[in-house]
Each structure stands twice: as structure tokens, then as C-alpha cells.
Amino acid sequence: MITAPYNFVPLNDHIVTPYWGPAISHDKPFIDSQSGVLNVEITAESPIFVRNGEIRKKNKDGKEIINSDFNQFKSKYFIPGSSIKGMLRNFVEVMTFGRMEDKVNDVKYSVRDFNNNGIYPKSDISKEVQCGWLKFDGVKYLLTPCGRPGRISHKNLDKISGATKISEYYHQNSNINSDKKRSAKAKYEAFPFKKDGYAFKYQSADEPEDGIGREKYVLDETGQGKKGTIVFTGQPGVRKEKENQGKQYEFIFFNYNNPEISLDKDEEGKPHEIIRNLFHAYYDHDKGQQKDDWKWRKAQLLNGKPIPVFFRLKDYDKAPSSSNLLDMGLAFLYKITYNFSVKESIQNYQKSENLQYPDFADCLFGYIKKTGNNKFDSLKGRVMISHAFAEEGANPLPQKTDVLGGPKATYYPNYIQQELKNGQGKISGNYFTFKNQKSRIRGWKKYPIRYSDPISNPAPIIKGKVNEEVASQYSPLPKGTKFKFKIAYHNLRKEELGALISALTFHGNEGFYHNIGMAKPLGYGKISFSIQNKKEAELNFLLKEFECYMNYALAPKGITWLDSPQVKELFSMSKPSEKGDKILKYQKLDMENRVNDFNQAKKDGLALQDFSKIVDPVKISSKASISEIEQKKIFHSTQSSYFESLALKGKEDPTSLYRISVEREIAKIILEQKEVLIEKLNEKRNQLKLEKLNQLAQKNLEIEQARLEEKLSNPINLESVKLNSRAFESLEKAMKVFQVKFKNGPIQDSQDQEILKRKLKEIFSVLPEKEKIKWKDSSWENNQYYKKICKWLGESETKKILKES
């Protein structure tokens, strides 16, 4: 069973959009307008910590100094109003079936999972990957493709690596015993020799590639071979030639002088999708997870220097182009991009009848949304929350040190909805990932409330030393600390105020708690709210109004609000449970002792189970009777029609008929012009496409001609022929590489003839006696050697060499 300190409320397929949303105003009150102030008290039911929000300073090494103190102003501890607002807004979004697509970044995640060939087929990727140079000119990114990369061994690089031999350097574990030393940056620093200006030839002429499309080369000391640049990537492990383990080759980016591809910004002014996905794959959005190589390469890129990248194409029958790029990375086997983004997977599942209407949380707390180029729609929130100041005399506990690692959304056993076949979380069939169109995210992430006191998650010990770099220091305030704050609300409907109170009080049910601040996975920040200036009867009336509306809104789906999977799961994670505590723990990741629960869970086919299926069912009391709910459905149906009529009335205009006729006439003219322009554009596009294809064909012809000329100009190489009983077969294989030299008749070059004659004499010397007799057979029509050698040397030279041997 997978354990985790977090879980999910299932993603709602139906979005509730209040019918009064378009009519919300700060100036025109609703008929039942609710305005006022809630005086609220927070009680810390466990130690609580909210980090000081001051601007972070840096030490002399440029590293940020993170303050371990509780947030404060003039020695007064407080929880920022924005933190409380964010927590409440998220709770309202979940319990009111809110819209999620605008809560996530529109990027595609990347994956490199060597344990799952269905998701990450290494051999296929090896055959597909191309290479090139990426640079940034200050406005846009430019990619210069270099085709398939070559490979060159560390042994061969020893010739130019200087006093320290690269093949020997990575025999030593001490040279790769940290992420920093395993990086490409460290390799460039350890071996600073010049990387460009070399020529290369095939390592073995009869076996130019390794079986999965990767060509092997060696330095060509004559300088006549293919020109290119040596490119280093990271060194993941110790190098052992005898066991054929560890990385033993680096890459060659060949100089083909291909045209640059411009990766322009999109219509909204955002970087090209490939660039956005590249930056996201290397955690450009999260400094804590960035590796040295990304920081180094990004700095080079932003300084205008080209950096080496690897990429794949959508269609390999077409040339590389900005629209034909699939994904990109800094290593040969980089993290490939999924087919669908998080936003796309949400849009494939969440539906709304009124896409233009705000959801419940947007109505309460406001929003700003982009609707087009430089166009925005916005609404100011009608709920304002003050800071929550702690009572006098609150003193922090001794400083704590724990690892507060954040979960990764790319871990699909937890973050993607899986089909389970048993109570232990075993999946049925294969894993769903963002590779599948029908996949959907698990939903709204929450940290379930712990039953026990907070636990610790100490920093790992590596080689006898505590790795403090991954740990956080914090000084929480003790359990029992009380905070007071105010919530001001303006022009809310009764249903909206009821939603706010329902979020604060768990719909008037006791024994449920929120959590806030840092270290929630460990049990810190468990809190309860108490509304001080409202009587219970008034609160229950407002809760009833909200409950009745939600049942009306969900009626088309055939479900009741309190019985919905979303509300049940949300409340299950908000009620402490001894059973729940047993699974609220991090999976283990201890590379030093080779413990990796994350990979093992995937090997075992496990997925995170719903929290409600592990703990005892929760009981949620309703505030409305069945008859009250049915009566309110009629009321809301009438109200919905009324607000719809207001919206239509507001659109009435006496000049609309004339304006519509003019608009139609203009639209007709525009359409005609558009068709003409489109036709011209298509003609131009086809012309450019044909020119591009002709250029590529000419380029390929030139490259192929250069290869042929290279083989014609260089003498034949028969060093790979082994002198044994099968030597002649080995010779035939080697000669196939140079068949261009005898394609139109016997070899004419005297140097080639001498090399071949010498090798033939050497082969004869090691042939068995029986084969030597066949070799000397002067009845040429029966001599198999004669027939084959004739292709290379001609009849007279062949007879001569066979007689003289």
C-alpha cells in the first residue's frame, strides 16, 4: 500500500456556476444583500508555524537565508490574512464544485521512467533523438539542428584530455559521489580541453552503429573526416569496462550548417511551447529542485551563448521546424514531454453549461482572467480578511528541524486517477498517465488532519553526516495558542454567506479541523474556527440556505450535496483518525542504502487509495429537511429565470436591427477578402514548402555526395579483418563498406590494390590446406575465390595473385 501525508478530493466533473454571477456588483445590492463583519477566533489544536514573510537576505555565497521565526510585526505574532483567505478559498472551491482549469499552469509535465517501458521506451527514444544548438537572442529562441549525434569513447578522448585521462578519472567513486560531481558542468571543469575543431571517422567501418541507431566514431588524426564538436553530459555512475557498466561515451554534434529554426512567442506573448516545457521540466519554477547543470546552462543561454540540446520530432518524414518539434532536453535520454498537459486533462473531464460564468469561489473572493490579447475580465472580491494576531503572551517552542519535501505532480500512481482492483491499492491493468487522453488528475490535493501529535521527519544521514541542506528550521507556536481576526463581507447573497460560514465551521459539524502554514504533512497547523458574533440559530439558517442551493445546483447530476464523493472525501480528510495516521507518512527514498519506495510501488503496480476508504465513515449532519430542499429548488429555478431575463434585458438596444444588418454586410465583405487572402497565402505556403523540400533534397544529395567522395578519396581500411580460418568471410564483410570503389569495375587505385593484395596473401597463409587447394584451382569456373576477387582486382590480377600465393 502506498503511504503519503497527502491525499485528494476527487475532481468534480460538473462545475457549479451561480446564476447570479453576472449580476454581482459592489454598487447595486441584491434584494437579500448581506453585509457586515464576522469576528472569528482561531485555536491552534496542534503546534502551528507560519514563516516570517520578510524579504529574504543572502549570505556571502549568494544563498538565501531563510528565517525560522514565526511571522510577526513589532514582536506581535500573526497569521497573514492572505494565508487565511487562500486556505478558505481552496476549501470553498472544493466543496462548491469549483473550476480547476484556471488554477493550474498550462504546461506539459515531463517523464523519465526507466522502470516503465510503456511510458518511457528507451530503445525507441535512442533511435529518435536528434541534437542541436539552442540560443536566445534577447527576444526569441533559435535552434540549429545537427542531425543525429555521434558517440566517442572515453578511451579515445584520452588522446586529447590532457594529463588526467578521462577513462581513468571516472573509475574512482570519489569523483562522482555527489550530484555536483556527477554533473556535466563538473566534467567540463575537470576536462577543459578544446571541444571543437576536430574531425571524426567511424570507430569500426563494418559496424558503424551499436544496434539502436547510435553511431560510434574516433578522432581522425588526418583531419579529413566529418567535422564536429565534442559535447559532455553528466556521469551517472562509476565506469567499469570489464563489466561494461557506467557511461563510457560522450557525444559529437556534427557541423551540417543547417538553417536556424526560430521558436517564436505565441499569440499571448508567452515563450514557444517547447521552451516553456523545457524550462518546466528542469524546475525553473522551483529553485529548490534545480540541478547545477540547469542553472549553468540557463545562465549561458540568457547570456546569448548557444547550449547543446537533444530533441525529438513529431514527424520524422518532415524536416525539423518550430511546429514539428515534440520535446527537448539537456541529455540524450532526457525527460520526454507527456502528450497532454494538466489543464488539458482537466478540460477533458470538467464540464460547465455556463463557461462564461464565475464559479462560487470566484463570486466570493474575486478573480482576474485573460479573455484574449490584452483583454481581461475581472471582479473585485466581496470578502476581506484581516490578519489574525496571536493573544498576548504567546511564546514559540524550541526550534525544529525537519525535511518538508513537497510531493511531485509527475508521480502518476498518486496524482493520476487509477483503476484499483483490491483494497490494498493494486491497479487493474496498466497505469494511466498524461500520455493517455482519457486520464484525469486525482483532484484537489489536501493534507489530512492527524489524530496524534506532530511527528518528525529528520534529515537523511549520508556517509555519517546529516544532510542539512534538504531540511527546514522553524519555531512553531504551541498548541492552544489563540488568534483573532475579522472577515468583512459586502453585498453577499444568503447562500454566499452560508458558504463562507460552512467553510469555516464544516457546515456546523464538530470534530473537524483545518490546517494552515508550514509542516502540515507532519501534523502542524491543525486549527479550529469559532465565530464570536453570530448566534447558532442565525448560522444554521444561513447554512441551510447554502445547502439548499447546492442541492438545487447538483440536481441535474442526480446527487445530493452532502452525499457527494467530493464532500465525503473532504470531510474524511478533515476529521482526525487513528487509522488515518498509519498511512500519513512519507515514502522512503534513501539512495545510500538503495531504498526507493517510489520506484518499488510502481514495480508492484500500486496507487494511492482514497482516504475515505481507509478510515471509518464520517457523519455529516444536514441543516435542511427534504421538504425545505424541494421548496428551495422551485425558488432557485424561478430566481435563475429572473436573472436570465435581466441579462437579456440589459442586451436590448433600439439600434440593434440596423447595427446587425451593417455587421452582417461587413462580415460578408471580410469573409470574401479573407478567402482571397487565404488562397494567396496557401499558394505562397505551398511555394515555400516546395522550395524548402528542394533545398533539403539538395542538401541531402550534397551530404551523400560528400560521403561518397570521402570513401573514394580515403584508402580502404582492412584492419578489422581477423586472420583465422574464416578470414576470407571477414574480408568480404569489410569490402562491402568500400563497394563504391569497385561498383563500376575493378579497383583502379594502386594503393588500394596493394593493400588488398597484401591482405589476400596474409589470408592465404592462414587458410586450412583444403582451402588452399581450392584457392590454387586453375579451373577458374570452379574456383569460388577467383569469382569473388575478380570483382575487386579484375581477371588478370586475380589469376596472378592466386598463382603466386
From TrEMBL:
Keywords: Antiviral defense, Coiled coil. The keyword Coiled coil applies. One of its GO terms (biological process) is defense response to virus. InterPro entries: CRISPR-assoc_RAMP_BGP1436 (IPR023825), CRISPR_Csm3_endoribonuclease (IPR052216), RAMP_III_fam (IPR005537). Residues 41-265 form the CRISPR type III-associated protein domain. Residues 664-714 form a coiled coil. PANTHER family: CRISPR SYSTEM CMS ENDORIBONUCLEASE CSM3. This is CRISPR-associated protein (TIGR03986 family). The lineage of its organism: Bacteria, Pseudomonadati, Bacteroidota, Cytophagia, Cytophagales.
